């Protein structure tokens, strides 16, 4: 019997684990967080995880898949350092917003430039990121953060979207479309952003710049960051996040894994 | 004499101004003597200026002007890296460097550079053809010749000043961070009293190791007048996975503003490309420019065509203190007990080990006691991070080591708590990042910034939103959430 390690117990990772187990593969599902469902917990995760367990998937929660090399996955977690043998590694480690470098935002290094994913957790912990935040992004995360910041006490929320004219501005936001942030300024905290729309530059007062632009795959397993012969990527990056999209990505990854094992 | 309402609290034998890699190395060297030493630093943490955004190269001195103080100190520091790195828990790798020439015209400069290396006592050799491909398999095939410098190394230059300062601190040196020199009073040609934003010092000797601010500090202390201008360098950091293809440093023939951009493996396996060189006026301008970064990448692709920006993790800029005279190191002509350690433009890390001893010897020559402090330590209690040795079993022995907070850099909760409890602890999220690399990886804190902030906030005063990112005022948030 082949052994496969699936890294990441978001919806997609759980689904692909179950599919592989149902095909007779020995599957260990490794999740960094103490519960299944991923960083932005999906409500159906617990139920999906139970189904996967019934199909024979072994779960290791609170455990990071740290490195894949020579048919072994090194993990670090509540059970200590555990090495798993794996004929293939399925990477289902979810997504993240683009970083400042990926967005090409130049300028000063003042505080207040925040990844959107961290913003969500900090808001949940009672930290208001800015009174005049600027949110970069077009997708669900950006929309949700614009709304969450507004109800958490922000006075003005600026939304900078790459999408073209005709997109409906989200309620309560000062919206720039067809736009990108060129640079941010201010030290020790950010106080201004330069937004470009074609040739037009606008200086926007902003005391926080939230990076919530298009989701990209979160890759952080050493030896598998840029793929490899026994590495199968399983990312569902389409917006919005739906069960159907996750299932489609899982099915595709399952097929690919079976091919890899052949 | 001017008067001040500030209490006179300090009468150290030596007051060091500046806690970059030079100031901290001097502090460490002096900490082995039975003398009283204090350090003042304008920024909230040690190593916050030039010392945090540099190449990490520990130069072996091969290309420096023979006989210069710079060459002497760099050459004297080079053989000591392995020893100091193991004692302080700083990662060092002697990776080697290859300088590439892309035409026979460029290659005609090779023999002069090789002779210069010989004068500096450094072994290098000209390489061509198969031998060039062997020592630098990643170099462009268009290179016609090169110089191979096996002794060139890379060090974790971000941790280096922290480690120097921590050993100094363990040995009794007092660090006053977030405190600037305001003025001084002189009498009989000596600095008598130094006023900072928080206290007064009456030191026997003052060492100016203020880096970019050394001109201002010298003037404030009544010392020599000179000017330091910032030379900005922009960098792109590439992922460790790309680092596997970069076994050693690549550089081109030197130009007017020093070496052009280089391809540099870092001590922890990632790759730096840069820097460019641009003389500025504003000493705080650490901004990056899109055009500058593109230019850096293009020029480095000449050295190594495989460079691909899909591996880019982050971009940043650093300022090097450029002075009319490099290595302005020695006694001030204006104030007899003021020792300058200034104008150290681009080899501060490389010369730091010997610089500490050099300044110590100058002070001893002027009457500072050379009696050793019998209780002084030579090493630090420090648990290295996972990336230093990849030993999962070692890390898992500590229950906190089993919780990986930063998944990209594999930084555990144990590492973060250590950074906040060290002899000279991190006092900001940035300080934790500098000591651990947390939030510095591929996702740039997307997954871990909230976790790192939470642990840091347990150690810093105020509410969670007030947790500093770096300098005072750099709060994590703007206030407390309302509503719901």
UniProtKB/TrEMBL annotation, chain A:
UniProt cross-references to SUPFAM superfamilies, sorted A to Z: FAD/NAD(P)-binding domain (SSF51905)
FAD/NAD(P)-binding domain ranges (all copies): 3-110
Origin: domain of life: Bacteria
Pfam families reported in the protein's UniProt record: Pyr_redox_2
InterPro entries: FAD/NAD-bd_sf, FAD/NAD-binding_dom
Name of the protein in question: FAD-dependent oxidoreductase
UniProt source species: Nocardioides oceani
TrEMBL record, chain B:
Signal peptide from the UniProt entry: none
UniProt cross-references to Pfam families, sorted A to Z: DAO (PF01266), Fer2_BFD (PF04324)
Positions of the FAD dependent oxidoreductase domain: 13-362
Region Disordered: start-end pairs: 465-484
SUPFAM superfamilies recorded: FAD-linked reductases, C-terminal domain (SSF54373), FAD/NAD(P)-binding domain (SSF51905)
Domain BFD-like [2Fe-2S]-binding: from-to ranges: 404-450
Domain of life assignment: Bacteria
PANTHER family linked: GLYCEROL 3-PHOSPHATE OXIDASE, GLYCEROL-3-PHOSPHATE DEHYDROGENASE
Protein name: NAD(P)/FAD-dependent oxidoreductase
Species name: Nocardioides oceani
Lineage, top ranks: Bacteria, Bacillati, Actinomycetota, Actinomycetes, Propionibacteriales
């Amino acid at each position: 019997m082949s052994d496969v390690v699936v890294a990441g117990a978001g919806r997609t990772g759980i689904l692909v684990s179950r599919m592989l187990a149902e095909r007779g593969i020995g599957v260990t599902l490794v999740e960094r967080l103490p519960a299944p469902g991923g960083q932005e917990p999906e409500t159906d995760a617990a139920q999906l995880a139970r189904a996967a367990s019934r199909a024979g998937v072994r779960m290791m929660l609170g455990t990071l898949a740290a490195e894949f090399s020579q048919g072994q996955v090194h993990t670090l977690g509540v059970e200590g350092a555990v090495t798993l043998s794996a004929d293939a590694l399925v990477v289902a480690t979810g997504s993240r917003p683009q970083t400042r470098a990926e967005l090409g935002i130049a300028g000063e290094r003042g505080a207040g430039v925040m990844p959107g994913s961290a913003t969500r957790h900090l808001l949940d912990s009672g930290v208001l990121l800015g009174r005049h935040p600027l949110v970069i992004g077009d997708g669900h995360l950006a929309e949700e953060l614009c709304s969450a910041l507004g109800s958490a006490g922000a006075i003005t929320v600026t939304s900078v979207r790459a999408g073209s004219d005709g997109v409906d501005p989200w309620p309560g936001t000062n919206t720039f479309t067809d736009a990108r942030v060129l640079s941010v300024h201010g030290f020790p905290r950010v106080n201004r952003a330069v937004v470009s729309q074609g040739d037009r530059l606008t200086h926007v007062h902003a005391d926080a710049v939230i990076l919530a632009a298009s989701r990209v795959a979160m890759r952080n397993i050493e030896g598998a960051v840029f793929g490899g012969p026994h590495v199968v990527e399983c990312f569902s990056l389409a917006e919005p996040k739906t069960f159907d999209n996750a299932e489609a990505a899982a099915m595709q990854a399952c097929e690919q894994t079976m091919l890899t094992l052949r | 004499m001017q008067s001040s309402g500030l209490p006179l609290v300090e009468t150290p034998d030596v007051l060091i101004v500046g806690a970059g890699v030079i100031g901290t190395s001097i502090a460490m060297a002096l900490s082995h003597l039975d003398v009283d030493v204090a350090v003042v630093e304008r920024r909230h943490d040690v190593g916050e200026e030039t010392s945090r955004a540099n190449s990490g190269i520990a130069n072996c001195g091969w290309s420096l002007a023979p006989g210069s103080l710079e060459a002497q100190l760099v050459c004297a520091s080079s053989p000591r890296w392995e020893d100091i790195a193991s004692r302080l828990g700083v990662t060092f790798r002697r990776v080697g460097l290859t300088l590439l020439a892309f035409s026979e015209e460029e290659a005609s400069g090779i023999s002069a550079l090789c002779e210069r290396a010989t004068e500096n006592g450094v072994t290098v050799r000209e390489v061509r053809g198969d031998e060039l491909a062997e020592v630098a398999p990643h170099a462009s095939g268009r290179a016609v010749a090169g110089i191979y410098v096996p002794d060139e190394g890379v060090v974790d230059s971000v941790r280096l000043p922290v480690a120097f300062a921590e050993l100094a601190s363990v040995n009794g040196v007092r660090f006053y961070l977030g405190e600037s020199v305001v003025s001084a009073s002189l009498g009989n040609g000596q600095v008598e009293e130094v006023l900072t934003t928080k206290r007064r010092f009456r030191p026997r000797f003052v060492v100016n190791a203020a880096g970019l601010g050394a001109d201002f500090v010298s003037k404030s202390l009544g010392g020599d007048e000179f000017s330091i201008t910032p030379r900005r360098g922009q960098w792109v950091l590439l992922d460790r996975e790309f680092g596997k293809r970069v076994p050693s440093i690549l550089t081109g023939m030197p130009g007017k503003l020093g070496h052009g951009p280089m391809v540099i493996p870092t001590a922890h396996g990632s790759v730096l490309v840069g820097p460019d060189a641009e003389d500025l006026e504003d000493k705080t301008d650490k901004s990056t420019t899109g055009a500058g970064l593109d230019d850096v990448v293009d020029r480095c692709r000449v050295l190594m065509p495989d460079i691909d920006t899909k591996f880019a993790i982050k971009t940043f800029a650093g300022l090097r203190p450029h002075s009319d005279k490099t290595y302005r190191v020695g006694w001030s002509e204006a104030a007899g007990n003021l020792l300058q350690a200034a104008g150290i433009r681009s080899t501060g890390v490389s010369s730091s080990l010997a610089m500490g001893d050099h300044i110590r010897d100058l002070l001893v020559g002027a009457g500072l006691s050379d009696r050793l402090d019998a209780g002084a330590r030579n090493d630090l209690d420090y648990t290295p991070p996972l990336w230093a040795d990849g030993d999962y079993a070692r890390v898992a022995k500590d229950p906190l080591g089993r919780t990986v907070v930063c998944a990209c850099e594999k930084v555990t909760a144990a590492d973060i708590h250590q950074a906040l409890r060290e002899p000279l602890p991190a006092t900001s999220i940035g300080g934790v990042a500098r000591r651990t690399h947390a939030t510095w990886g591929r996702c740039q804190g997307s997954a871990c910034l909230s976790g790192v902030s939470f642990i840091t906030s347990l150690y810093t005063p105020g509410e969670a939103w007030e947790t500093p990112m770096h300098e005072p005022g750099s709060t994590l948030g703007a206030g407390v959430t309302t509503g719901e």
